[in-house]
Design goal:
Blueprint: E1 8-13, H1 17-22, E2 28-29, E3 32-33, H2 36-42, E4 47-52, H3 70-82, E5 86-91, H4 114-134, E6 141-144, E7 151-152, E8 157-158, H5 162-179, E9 184-189, H6 195-207, E10 214-218, H7 221-224, H8 227-240, E11 244-249, H9 254-262, E12 270-275, H10 297-305
Parallel strand pairs: 1-4, 1-12, 4-5, 5-6, 6-9, 9-10, 10-11
Antiparallel strand pairs: 2-3, 7-8
Length: 308
């Protein structure tokens, strides 16, 4: 019987893990080398997020070794499900990083018409979801795009082209639903403390009949304001929209971010995903791979908010 995906989420994006392991990096629990996924689970994490690129080996792609491709994602998905954890899959729809400052169209799609681009987005999404389903590791939640408040696959689906943006989002969502009707669909924007920008994006996608379940927000204080800004934005979005809300990227102000996310009023699914906690910014392991005080915050958060 499939495990029920949790409604209260303490998640982590650890997409760098296979690369670190290939480099010989080890992680320790009680001074014993242990799978980092299991260590995170033991500390209260119940969900793992993975990014996937179209063709990371392409010229100007993410990795000549193919990290974060479909085959690597399938291997990690097996580990996530074996650990009994939820699985969020993050489509960048690019051969490399996609974020508010860059949304490079995959090299194989650069010369396609808009209609063929929609077909390709749906087909690629469907292929990934089918292969994950066939090995018994379907994602519980899917991001159709990564930090897409400025659009995606520029210039075709730039935020200046709202109808086109909505069209490619619908194609991606259709690709998910072709293979996994139960997966929750997330739209991910990088506007944690920016209410006006969040509402502009969401209002325009909803007006164009884009169907989704979860609003994902990134929150990095150097770009997205104070914790008060974050909390005010999340609470306002909760009042305006029926979708659930998750802080799907953060690293600093761990306790404060989780407090803001878990106290959003009136929502069924709440929680957070820390971004690359194995190494990025305020990492939860030291350079030798041993847990530090940051990781010790998570059992407290788990208990405080009754996370299973």
């Amino acid at each position: 019987m499939a495990q029920k995906s949790p409604d209260k989420i303490i998640g982590a994006d650890i997409s760098w893990l296979p690369q670190f392991e290939e480099q010989g990096k080890k992680y320790y629990e009680n001074d014993q080398a242990t799978d980092a996924i299991q260590i995170l689970k033991d500390k209260g994490f119940n969900y793992i997020r993975l990014r996937i690129f179209n063709n990371p080996r392409a010229d100007s792609g993410y990795s000549k070794k193919g990290y974060c491709d479909l085959e690597g994602t399938k291997k990690m998905a097996l580990r996530i499900k074996a650990a009994g954890m939820g699985f969020l899959l993050d489509f960048h729809y690019s051969d490399t990083w996609a974020d508010p400052g860059k949304q490079y169209i995959p090299s194989a799609w650069k010369k396609l018409s808009y209609a063929l681009l929609q077909d390709s987005v749906r087909a690629f999404t469907k292929k990934v979801l089918k292969e994950l389903k066939d090995q018994g590791t379907p994602p519980d939640m899917v991001q159709v795009g990564n930090e897409i408040n400025h659009g995606m696959m520029w210039p075709i689906a730039n935020i200046k082209h709202l109808d086109t943006l909505a069209g490619v989002l619908k194609a991606g969502i259709a690709g998910v639903k072709d293979e996994n009707k139960k997966a929750k669909i997330m739209l991910h924007i990088a506007c944690g403390g920016q209410n006006k920008e969040s509402r502009y994006f969401l209002d325009n996608m909803i007006a164009r009949n884009v169907k989704f379940d979860i609003i994902g927000e990134s929150y990095y204080p150097e770009w997205h304001g104070t914790i008060t800004d974050l909390k005010n934005n999340l609470n306002d979005l909760a009042a305006r929209y029926k979708q659930d809300i998750i802080v799907v990227e953060y690293t600093k102000l761990k306790m404060e971010v989780n407090d803001a996310a878990f106290t959003i009023p009136g929502k069924k699914i709440t929680g957070t995903f820390i971004w690359e906690p194995l190494s990025y910014q305020e990492a939860v392991f030291d350079k030798t791979g041993h847990p530090n005080a940051y990781l010790d915050m998570y059992p407290v958060i788990k208990q405080k908010y009754g996370v299973k």
